[in-house]
Amino acid sequence: MRNSYFWARNEQNKFELVYGYNNANGSGYHSEIWYKPTRFYPVGTTYWSDAYIDPYTDETMITASVPMWLEHQFIGVSTVDLALSSLKSFFNKLELHQGYLFALDSNNNLLAHPYDSEEQDSSKPSPYLSYPFEKFTQDHPAYASILTEVEKIDAQFLKQAGTSSTYDKTQLDTLLNTLDASKRDRLSALINANARGISPNSERTTSFVLDQDPQLKEPVLVSVFHMPRTYWKIILVTPLSEVGNKEHAIAAKIGIFLLLTQLIALVVLFIFQHRLFIKPISKMVESLQEGNIAKLELTANQRKDEIGKLAKAFTKRNQQLEIAYASLDAGNLALEQQLAMQKHAQIQLSKHKNQLNDLLNSSQNLICIKNTEGFYTLVNDRFCEVLGLERDKVIGAKDRDLFPAHIAEIIARHDKIIASTETPQSFEQPIPTNQGEITYLITKYPIQDNEGNIFALGAMAFDISHIKAVNQELTGQVEQLNQDLVHREMQVQQLKMTLRRVELSSISIEKHQQQSLQLQHIGAQNHKLMPQLITDILREQLKEHELIFTKLRQNSPLQRGDELLELMRLVTEQTDKLRHLLYLVVPQSEEIKSVHIKQFVEHLLAVLAPQFDVYKVKASLECSEQLALQVSPWSLLLLFYKLLQNTLSHGFTMDTDQNEIAISVHKDGQQLVICIRDNGVGVEPSYLEEINKQIKEHTSTGTLAELALWLKIEFGGELSLSSELSKYTEIRCLLTIPDGSD
């Protein structure tokens, strides 16, 4: 669990709880540098981190971390992030007698420093804060001697902390290996110095004279103070002139005071020395030597002067010593009890260790443990028996020392999976034995410390070779059964196919009968259509002739030239229409070698021109001049006439203009493709879907459905309809052309 309770100020400067460290995808607070070292700090101490720039506020910060212990168990860390923005103003308020100072953290990073007089705006953050003092001295070489003294102090501190270490190197390796190499010795010294209570009070570690200060432009005295518990350094720079003035003033005052004191002391000392000091002190010494504490207490109660206070101090100190002796006796008793408990725990531990060894060695499974570097640290007897090796040759060895290269590679790959997933997993793996390679099922699992860090990998393996043999036998039996089942299924499928063919035959016969009836109906309609077609065309021609004769009767015999020309034009048009009609209605019994498609459609369009004019339709044709087919002209006439009549009837309304019909005819392999596209009203999607369904299933007596059935039976063709409402409608026909057509 990630139980982090972290508060930060929001935009309204109020504290709010932030759950970032509890995010399962993050690294967590356990990996932070302010957390790891704190577990090595005793109760009541504080770990001060290096100075850093906060990424959210851009302020110089430092983190104070206090360890939390419960019943001698480390349970977490309580931290406070402190902004150092007010540290500069605090130092500025100090009366430093025209001097200044530097402040360094425990790793010699700058916490505060004087600003150059040439800087324009000293209110802005310094670029040197939170960076090493060495960087500052590189840009300000005049302070290089201060850096030298600081490095000497650090060397002395590291030496002093290393003389008697509370924690040895192995205890701190896990922590120190995560840090930069340059900071490891320093952090180790800080942990040990804090645990031993080194430097409990502030002290001046060194003082030296700097001949020419770059800030004050005169010689200065540099004093370095070591701060208690934080292990910060305060470097105080004071002008030597100021130090000299102070010294003269202090010396004058002390000289006068000493002169007066000596004159008085010479008179008083001889008179009262024996009475006031020597005699009472001698009595107290006698009481202490005799162990007569009651007499000493009587003297303390009778006298109210310094001698009485001294007697009271001796009495109080004696009581403290008695309490200390009693406490020491109690501590010795507690230590004896604790020692007895430890001996009992060691006996129990030895007993459990023996039981665990008996359990491991009596198991028929292979059990082993390796550290993170791949060295074996524990194996049971069965492991040694299977590999045929002594235990002392296995312990401390790696996989490549015990197994062939290909097996060692398999083991390394499995170990990498466990280390990356941090979850137990099982693998099948061959292991070389005296009887050859045997397949084992190996379950590997990570072994973690209290903080969740993996420090070893464990494995248990058991022989599954006999299980695999049984599985192979069962697999063979299953495969044989599957083959028999497939054979039976194939027989069933054949029976089903036979039954389906019988059913389809009956359905096909019934469907063929229905289609034959529909075809007969279509043929009858086609026979009816031809007289109607000819009748309609002849009716139009009759109207045209009546119009010509009417004009002839209305005009006198001596007609004007333009009227005569108009009559000649009308007669010529009628003659052309009769010629077009004659081309279309050639009897089927007349032998026709081939039909030129473009000429045929042009003749039909000329005959239907009056109907196109009624709907204000302009027709266009796209067809090759060389396209000729050996087909019945009657069939072509029926197909094009029905298609064009359907388009005129359903594609346009009488009140629309600029109506167009585009006719496209071309040959694609053995198929003739006919497309008739208009720019009319279009078809609604639901109705279009219904029409195409009827065309496909031949379930309707509509024009297009019957025409699709007729095309399928007569030409092995098909028909489809596409449309977009208010934009276009397109009818597409495919006819299979017999061989020999061009």
Give a description of the structure:
The structure is a single chain. With about 750 residues, the chain is of the alpha+beta class. The protein has 19 helices and 23 strands. Strands 8-7-11-10-9 form a five-stranded antiparallel beta sheet. The chain has a five-stranded antiparallel beta sheet with strand order 13-12-16-15-14. A hairpin with a 2-residue loop joins strand 14 (about 425-435) and strand 15. The longest helix is centred in the last third of the chain and has 90 residues, at about 465-555. The protein is elongated and about 175 Å long. The chain starts with 5 loop residues before the first strand and ends in a 6-residue tail after the last strand. Mean pLDDT is about 75; it is low at about 245-260.
Lay out the secondary structure:
Layout (H helix, E strand, L loop, with lengths): L5 E4 L5 E4 L28 E2 L3 E2 L6 E11 L2 E11 L3 H7 L6 E5 L5 E3 L20 H7 L4 H20 L5 H8 L4 H16 L6 E8 L9 E7 L6 E7 H51 L2 H10 L3 H57 L3 E6 L4 E4 L1 H7 L3 H4 L4 H4 L2 H17 L3 E9 L2 E13 L5 E10 L1 H90 L6 H24 L10 E2 H11 L1 H6 L2 E7 L4 E2 L3 H19 L7 E10 L2 E8 L6 H13 L5 H13 L2 E7 L3 E9 L6
Parallel strand pairs: 18-20
Antiparallel strand pairs: 1-2, 3-5, 4-5, 5-6, 7-8, 7-11, 9-10, 10-11, 12-13, 12-16, 14-15, 15-16, 17-19, 20-21, 21-23, 22-23
Helix pairs in contact: 3-5, 6-7, 7-8, 13-14, 13-19, 14-15, 18-19
